[in-house]
Specification:
six-stranded mixed β-barrel; 17% strand; 417 residues
Length: 417
């Protein structure tokens, strides 16, 4: 296997027919190039789709209250459901739930509140959240920290502000951490500044938000035992739709709502949407592998045909080798080595070219923050698997030419022209 003379012979054989070897290698090169580029673009598109979800928790369910539509246990339809703190424990007991993040907001969904700091005033969103909120909405911390369990239990008047709040209420070079802001006459100490991973309106909305510990919010703004809506983290091991239905059933039982009342609760199942997206991209990856395999297969046919021609041209040489004592196994190894060297060299060059092309594409996309494709790159495991498949394909391509060479009879070979 590590006979230097044998490998030099393989290289000498390929050099004798440079044009033919290059043209044959082009099929394998193109197959590897296309496979890696398509896989890299597919991975980049998947990242872009996930990013377009705005950094939301991908394994989560959002639940809010609405009005009932079915009479139940003496209660008339049209009753508005009001969540309370006991609902948190009811949801936590549901199988498949990993965390519960209740939320409150001053005013309506898009209504802001006047926030003051000294002589400066701005209109921003004010929300009450729990320490688990960064699991729901991944945030980038520019300064300080998010509130923690001690802030919740002690109902500390602390706040985390978005970067738009800082820009409007503070000087450009001023650190907001440790400063006070006033919300509806209540002073809050800023402990952190964050920015969102989202783009567009949603990103701007989060950047213009003041986050307050949930327990503090309830106490400071006279909303004790009230909850606006929930974000519930789900365990990926359980079907997202099943967990969503179980949560609604638990809430329906607690608030005396008919189990079949589909109007009492509104919900958005991000986990289910994400599972469907993952299923779509699994299909895309499978399709890409099929296309790449077929392209590589076409290249392998070319390699096999060229090796058959090479064996025919070297019939006298093979006959002389056998007459001098060469075994059929040594002849087979000679042909197999030529096939593997040609395919591996072409495949490696195709891989390098694909990486270079994806890097160039990624540098262009880096200047387009809202492009649908994000960081297209070759996965190491996929590249390793493709190289292994290429070696296997090279061995398969050599089977027919090697068998033909091994069956050459020395006397008939010496008579051939």
């Amino acid at each position: 296997m590590f006979d230097l003379d044998a490998w030099q012979e393989v290289w000498s054989t390929l050099r004798k027919n440079k044009l033919r070897a290059i043209l044959t290698a082009c099929g394998v090169f193109w197959g590897m190039f296309m496979l890696m580029v398509l896989l890299g673009l597919g991975a980049g598109l998947e990242r872009g789709v996930v990013r377009s979800l705005g950094g939301m928790a991908l394994h989560s369910v959002y639940v809010w209250s609405q009005r009932t539509s079915i009479p139940f246990k003496g209660l008339q339809p049209g009753r508005y459901v009001k969540f309370n703190n006991q609902d948190i424990e009811a949801i936590q007991r549901v199988t498949g739930v990993t965390y519960v993040a209740p939320r409150l907001q001053l005013g309506g969904w898009r209504d802001g509140q006047n926030i003051t700091r000294g002589a400066k005033t701005g209109n921003f969103n004010v929300v009450g959240d729990v320490p688990e909120f960064p699991l729901v909405e991944p945030l980038v911390f520019k300064r300080g920290r998010f509130f923690n369990g001690f802030d919740m239990t002690e109902k500390r008047k602390v706040a985390v502000v978005g970067e738009s709040v800082t820009k409007e209420l503070f000087e450009p070079d001023q650190d907001p951490v440790g400063q006070y802001i006033q919300v509806k006459g209540v002073n809050f100490l800023i402990v952190g500044e964050v920015k969102s991973l989202k783009f567009g309106d949603e990103g701007e909305k989060l950047s213009a938000t003041v986050f307050i510990p949930f327990a503090t919010f309830q106490n400071a703004f006279n909303q004790r035992d009230r909850i606006g809506w929930f974000t519930i983290g789900t365990d990926p091991k359980y079907p997202a739709v099943w967990v969503e239905d179980a949560i609604k059933l638990a809430l329906a039982e607690k608030h005396r709502i008919h189990p079949n009342d589909n109007q009492a609760f509104g919900s958005f199942n991000a986990a289910d949407k994400f599972e469907k997206i993952q299923g779509l991209f699994r299909g895309i990856r499978l399709f890409v592998w099929m296309v790449g395999a077929l392209t590589l297969g076409a290249g392998m046919l070319g390699v096999s045909n060229i090796l058959l021609i090479t064996v025919k041209e070297r019939t006298r040489e093979i006959g002389i080798r056998k007459a001098l004592g060469a075994t059929p196994g040594s002849i087979v190894r000679m042909v197999v080595k030529e096939s593997v060297v040609l395919t591996m060299l072409a495949g490696y060059l195709g891989l390098v070219a694909a990486v270079a092309a994806l890097e160039g594409f990624a540098s262009v996309l880096a200047k387009l923050p809202e492009a649908p494709v994000t960081r297209p790159e070759v996965d190491f495991k996929a590249a390793l698997l493709a190289q292994c498949l290429l070696i296997a394909a090279g061995l398969i391509a050599a089977i027919m030419p090697a068998r033909h060479a091994a069956r050459v009879h020395p006397v008939e070979a010496l008579r051939s022209e």
